[in-house]
Amino acid sequence: MGTNLESAFHLSQLAHPLLKNSEGASLVFMSSVAGVASVSFGSGAMNQLTKNLACEWAKDNIRVNSVAPWFTTTPLVESHLEDKKFEESVIGRTPMRRVGKAEEVASLTAFLCMPASSYITGQTVCVDGGMSVHGFTFP
Q1: R_g (Cα) of the chain, nearest Å
Q2: Confidence class for position 74, pLDDT limits 50, 70, 90
Q3: What is the rounded end-to-end Cα distance, in angstroms, of the chain?
Q4: Which residues neighbour 3 within 8 Å (Cβ) at sequence distance 6 or greater?
């Protein structure tokens, strides 16, 4: 297939023995708010993989979670956000009225890898300024 989901699955299977040998491992997938909210693109397959592996690997003391960002200021989305009409539509559907910052996604990801989150597994956490509560469809 060659998809991101397939790659994530294969890489996680390869990493499993190493994670199992640690004293408490954490695997964090990068997903998308498109797998959580009603948008006209994306699917929730990565989020379901997160849940399945969390249940399967809990016995091995491995936690598995997903981070699901909405539009975040990165080189990947710069060209889209240069279209002011598009940017306004994204911001208009985001209760916090702005695009996310990369460090906001990174800080959640880091937290999910720390002992402070040791009882969190199987979760998809949206970093979306409230968009997943609001919903969005592209013009």
Answers
A1: 16
A2: very high
A3: 30
A4: none
